[in-house]
Design goal:
With 324 residues, the chain is mostly helical. It is built from eleven helices and four strands, in the order H-H-H-H-H-H-E-E-H-H-E-E-H-H-H.
Length: 324
């Protein structure tokens, strides 16, 4: 029996290592592809949307392919210079459109670059994003269910959970880049209102007892999941069986975005709100599609699934019929 157990463990370890090798090789192929397909001016995909170049840089920085980073150092510098050259005096980083989205993605890339020359740009971009957080009605009072969110463009233009996630991810990354090792708890000059962010998350999570948003669903099928923004779900709407109002349906990718947002807000997996979204994600677990959306956004769903589960320290999801 001990022999068979030992052989089984050895086979598992070998298979695990083989898969890790495949993943590392795939990452290296992807990184090499990006470097070889960069525009000579330093950007990827479009010179009008710095976010695309920033996201490529973030992927490269986090892929940990040191030998390629050394080989393609000039390409990396050109990309960073392109992003820095897109910065505006008010702290935003863009080329005329999707201001907040471009600024957030660019802030991530500059923060991960870990170069002192970008410190002033990082500080100004943080201040811009912090100022773009929605605060309707009375100032500093959470009297509207949109308060606390962030949108694509200006302060009052289309706030939603995806853009909010990008903004808070950028703020946390830049926080790590700016904090001094000898003063890790020192407050930073500009920051989001994290309590207001939790208010916005409540407005987007189908737990109607936690928000005054009348569009949230009280259906057991939707409970715990998230919607795109307080007035819209990409998964559509139904007539709520309790309130008889139109209610917004939960769906997969945005629910992982909500789970990830809680992690950045330092709301852990022992909190009832996080437990609720984990429960919804378990009940709707699949890797065949983006739950509620079919094939639409399925790779974004995979991306957020991996990040959110890791961020919240969730190793398994309890699915229907005790599947994991």
């Amino acid at each position: 029996m001990l022999l068979f157990t030992s052989l089984g463990q050895s086979a598992y370890a070998e298979e695990h290592e083989r898969k890790l090798t495949e993943v590392r090789e795939a990452i290296e192929r992807g990184a090499r592809f990006l470097y070889k397909n960069q525009n000579p001016a330093g950007w990827w995909s479009s010179s009008e949307i710095p976010a695309l170049t920033a996201l490529a840089l973030v992927a490269l920085e986090m892929s940990e392919v040191a030998k390629l980073d050394a080989k393609y150092g000039s390409e990396r510098r050109r990309a960073l210079d392109f992003i820095a050259g897109s910065a505006k005096p008010d702290g935003s980083i863009h080329r005329g459109q999707l201001v907040n989205y471009n600024t957030a993605c660019s802030l991530m890339a500059l923060s991960l670059a870990d170069e002192p020359r970008f410190r002033s740009l990082i500080l100004k971009a943080r201040a811009y994003i912090a100022d773009s957080q929605i605060d309707l009605g009375e100032k500093d009072k959470m009297d509207d269910y949109h308060d606390g969110g962030v949108g694509y463009n200006s302060k009052y233009d289309h706030w939603d959970l995806n853009n909010t996630l990008m903004a808070i991810e950028a703020m946390r990354m830049s926080e790590l880049a700016l904090r001094r090792p000898d003063k890790p708890d020192q407050p930073l000059e500009s920051d989001l209102d994290w309590k207001a962010l939790e208010h916005f998350l409540a407005s987007c999570q189908n737990l109607p007892e936690r928000s005054n948003n009348p569009s949230l669903s009280s259906s057991a099928e939707d409970r715990g999941g998230f919607i795109y923004h307080p007035g819209e779900s990409k998964a559509g709407e139904v007539v709520d069986e309790q309130t008889r109002r139109l209610a917004l349906r939960s769906y997969g990718s945005i629910s992982y975005a909500g789970m990830m947002s809680f992690a950045y807000a330092r709301v852990g997996s022992d909190d009832e709100r996080v437990k609720a979204v984990i429960d919804w994600l378990g009940r709707n677990y699949t890797i065949e599609e983006n739950p509620g959306m079919g094939s639409e956004g399925v790779y974004y769903y995979y991306h957020l699934m991996a990040k959110a589960l890791k961020a919240q320290g969730v190793a398994t999801l309890e699915g229907p019929k005790e599947n994991k």
